[in-house]
Design brief:
2 copies of one chain form a homodimer. Chain A has 234 residues and is α+β, with helices and mostly antiparallel strands. The first copy, chain A, has 2 domains: 6-145, Jelly Rolls; 148-227, Arc Repressor Mutant, subunit A. Chain A contains 7 helices and 12 strands. In chain A, the strands form 3 sheets. A 4-stranded antiparallel beta sheet of chain A has the order 1-8-3-6, with no helix packed on it. A 4-stranded antiparallel beta sheet of chain A has the order 2-7-4-5. In chain A, strands 9-10-12-11 form a 4-stranded antiparallel beta sheet. Chains A and B meet through α3 of A and α3 of B. The structure holds a DNA duplex (30 and 30 nucleotides).
Chain lengths: 234, 234
DNA sequence: CACCGACTTTGATAAATCGCAAATGAAACC
DNA sequence: GGTTTCATTTGCGATTTATCAAAGTCGGTG
């Protein structure tokens, strides 16, 4: 098995504060995996055999209902943890993760989690910070879904996406991975039809530019006003 | 300062697996507080000076938006942790907690959290399990809000409430604390009017019995069918 | 290069739910 | 006991958004 170089992870926030030899030791029990676009990385309800760090690509975390509807819980970008069921005292994954692009991940056997958390307390702390941030994110999302109507929810979602995955282009800030109207609908609890209508309307106002599987925000500031409900309707 | 007896917490799930003397030591740094009905226990955005265990009463955790709307994130019942911002690497509370009834809580200084987590690893693990369960709950709620319409959401909420806080009576299972139509609306992202109409309709079908600030589920099973969308409409 | 499939747009209609207003009811407070 | 306050109910019109249906568009593939 080829050695994994420490530089793969040394810059990542989760591994911040760890010694070089700690990183090396952690990498000894990691496997590096390549996952093809649109392939599952782990599956909801499945036994949580591993936890992961995404090194390259993008993943979407999806939670499905008994009757087959699904909701995109979040997108994962390189450097982020995913599938950390063990850290939460779970033995199965509460959601699925699917590669949106070809991905490279590091995977550790789930049973190592407790050892890691005690042997590298900084890593444990950092992980719990991540969990805390996510709990907060999800709660914010609940508040949004409870209090805002669709237009503002979609606006907020797009703003979060460009914050997390935005790439600056001449035309504005591009969401840097393929995303369909359907995906946006699944993030915001609406239908692809409504998302399509919103994007068309926004395009006419010059806020965004969108095409097949891509969205560029031309005027983030104005979109934010709209998201916050502070824009007089014109 | 009066000694707190170990029996206060020894039976609680969070403290499970701890030695008697560990409990005693933990209690040495705890204060016991009495909080009057409808008084805040901690406030959103405030510095997270303490974390708490609810010993008696009920608390609701509320998250407010910039424009003053609020959402009830969850109810806390005796034995549960709350305000554990430190465990999530936060320095401020992400939500407020308000006593629904007169409450008794134990409070520990927030700065003790890291010491506790290392000195009593079982306690740490149990706490993270709690966090994991809550993360899962909130995500489930997002999925519900994204995929279900109001009637099913309200049904699910009531079912969760009786699971957590139900008291069996002759008439059925009573939600064991005062709860208004407005409260239920804030849990489910709807209006008190819609909740009122739903409860009236359900009452006519014999599913529930409700009055001022109280709800009794007469037929949990049928309500579940409705919540799951498996009931033919009659 | 034509075809296929996936994604997107758009219109028309229907349904769900909100917002407003007003009336009623029940508990709490002098 | 009377009054006040808060919670609840109910009707109705207005809006939002879903649903259904159909057509258009783009990109890739054989």
């Amino acid at each position: 098995m080829s050695r994994l170089d420490r530089s793969l992870i040394s810059g990542l926030p989760v591994f911040e504060g760890l010694q070089a030899d700690d990183l090396d030791r952690m990498l000894q029990s990691a496997r590096s995996l390549r996952i093809e676009k649109e392939t599952p990385i782990f599956e909801q309800g499945g036994e949580a055999h591993s936890f992961f760090v995404l090194l390259d690509g993008r993943a979407r975390v999806v939670k499905s209902t008994a009757d087959g509807q699904q909701v995109i819980v979040r997108y994962i970008v390189p450097g982020e943890l995913m599938g950390i069921a063990q850290a939460l005292g779970r033995t199965t994954y509460p959601a699925s993760a699917i590669a949106v692009l070809d991905c490279v991940v590091l995977a550790w056997p789930g049973r190592l989690w407790p050892e890691f958390a005690t042997a590298y307390p900084t890593f444990g702390m950092n992980t719990y910070k991540t969990v805390g941030a996510r709990l907060n994110d999800v709660q914010t999302q609940v508040v949004e879904m409870a209090t805002e109507q669709v237009e503002r929810r979609v606006a907020h979602s797009l703003l979060r996406l460009i914050k997390q995955s935005g790439r600056k282009t001449e035309a504005g800030i591009l969401i840097d991975f393929p995303i369909t109207r359907q995906d946006i609908a699944e993030m915001t609890g609406t239908t692809l039809h409504t998302v399509s209508r919103l994007l068309t309307a926004w395009e006419e106002k010059g806020l965004v530019r969108s095409g097949r599987q891509q969205v560029t925000i031309k005027e983030p500031h104005r979109l934010l006003l709209l998201a916050e409900g502070r824009s007089r309707q014109d």
